């Protein structure tokens, strides 16, 4: 059994299923990201693991022991984990006292506490704010205090609920660096939620995708990113082009798929049924004015129906019998003078076509 294991965990709110049959296994020392859109049930799930709420059905096992909600077992288990909430929670105390809080509560000697706290303040780069009231800090700094307080007591399990959501990009990057450092330096098991697929990819060993209260897919980042299990996961991981088609042939991992009268070739790592959707990331569609002679298997001719510039990028849609969204750099878009009505070719490698079953 895994270090953290849930078995058919279910939770209802006002008669509505918020979590359904969640079976999640997190190995000791693993960093596991729970990703999913807002409202999927991520916070609800973490609150059940932290024993703040009671599951309606199913069981939670920590280190092989079924969690019971007796006060004694609850205290014992909660001592071994720390939970950092999405919205940073700090006490109305100095930064130092915030971090020292759990250590004082555990009755450690003053000089031991001082050493530990100073060490951690160094890690979270808050030494200079040591005496400041934590409530006067910025959101990102407060989140760093919350993380510092969480790791101060040396928990075996760290639960993080969207630790960098609602922060500006610079503060969010700092938090991510901090978490990454904690993961590397400590023998700690981390279960974190995020709605940011890329953050999940950067930090986690494995990812579970939670959609509408159900885990739809678990795997390493590459698997989830390149072989989404169904349309919902595909959409969530940024497959903007999801086009229905029928498999014509499938030999030696190379499938030919008929899509609105055109044939698309794709590499498939697994057997596929006849009814499929082909998924293509916009950044995997190369746009050119003439037919490219390259090794890419798929060249789709069409007309641009819109372009949208944003920063250094240009997003555009080509009507090639079906809509195909492409993302190119602003510079190449300007060089080719890409605009509505222009005839272009969209080129996609067979390895960039991801095939999912259609139900
Ligand atoms: N206090 C609450 N009262 C009623 N519904 C809630 C409450 N908190 C969350 N929900 C609902 O439970 C579902 C899951 O929410 P949540 O676990 O917060 O999702 P996530 O963290 O993935 O955004 C959502 O549909 C949300 O609207
Ligand atoms: Mg949440």
What does this structure look like?
- By secondary structure, the protein is α+β, with helices and mostly antiparallel strands.
- It is built from ten helices and 21 strands.
- The protein has helices at residues 42-49, 71-79, 95-105, 110-123, 139-152, 169-185, 197-203, 221-226, 231-236, 330-336, and strands at residues 4-13, 16-22, 25-26, 31-35, 57-62, 65-66, 81-84, 157-161, 189-194, 206-211, 214-219, 241-251, 254-259, 262-267, 275-280, 286-288, 298-310, 313-319, 323-329, 343-348, 354-357.
- A six-stranded mixed β-sheet has the order 7-8-9-4-10-11, with helices on both faces.
- The structure holds adenosine-5'-diphosphate and magnesium ion.
- Magnesium ion (MG) binds next to helix 1.
List keywords for this structure.
single chain; 359 residues; alpha+beta; Rossmann fold; OB fold (Dihydrolipoamide Acetyltransferase, E2P); 2 domains; 5-stranded antiparallel sheet; 10 helices; 28% helix; binds adenosine-5'-diphosphate; binds magnesium ion
């Amino acid at each position: 059994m895994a270090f953290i294991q849930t078995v058919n965990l279910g939770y209802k709110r006002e008669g509505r299923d918020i979590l359904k049959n969640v079976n999640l296994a997190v190995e000791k020392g693993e960093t596991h990201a729970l990703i999913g859109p807002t409202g999927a049930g991520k916070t609800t799930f973490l609150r059940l693991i932290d024993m703040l709420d009671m599951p309606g059905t199913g069981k939670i096992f920590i280190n092989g022991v079924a969690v019971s909600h007796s006060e004694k077992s609850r205290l014992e288990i909660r001592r071994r984990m720390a939970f950092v909430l999405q919205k940073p929670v700090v006490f109305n105390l100095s930064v130092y006292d915030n971090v020292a809080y759990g250590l004082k509560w555990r009755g450690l000697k003053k000089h031991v506490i001082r050493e530990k706290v100073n060490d951690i303040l160094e890690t979270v780069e808050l030494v200079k704010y040591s005496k400041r009231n934590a409530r006067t800090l910025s959101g990102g700094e407060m989140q760093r205090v919350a993380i510092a307080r969480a790791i101060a007591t040396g928990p075996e399990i760290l639960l993080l609920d969207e630790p960098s959501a609602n922060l500006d990009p610079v503060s969010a990057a700092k938090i991510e660096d901090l978490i990454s450092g904690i993961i590397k330096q400590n023998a700690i098991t981390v279960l974190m939620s995020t709605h940011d697929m890329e953050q999940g990819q950067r930090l986690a060993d494995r990812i579970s995708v939670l959609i509408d209260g159900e885990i739809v897919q678990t795997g390493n980042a590459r698997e989830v990113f390149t072989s989404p299990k169904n349309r919902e996961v595909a959409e969530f991981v940024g497959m903007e082009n999801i086009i229905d088609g029928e498999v014509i042939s499938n030999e030696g991992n190379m499938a030919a798929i008929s899509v609105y009268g055109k044939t698309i070739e794709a590499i498939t790592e697994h057997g596929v049924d006849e009814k499929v959707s082909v998924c293509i990331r916009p950044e995997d569609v190369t746009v050119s004015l003439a037919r490219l002679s390259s090794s890419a298997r798929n060249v789709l001719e069409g007309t641009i129906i819109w372009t949208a510039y944003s920063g250094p990028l240009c997003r555009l849609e080509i009507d090639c019998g079906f809509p195909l969204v492409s993302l190119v750099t602003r510079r190449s878009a300007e060089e080719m003078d890409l605009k509505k009505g222009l005839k272009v070719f969209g080129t996609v490698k067979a390895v960039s076509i991801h095939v999912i079953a259609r139900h």
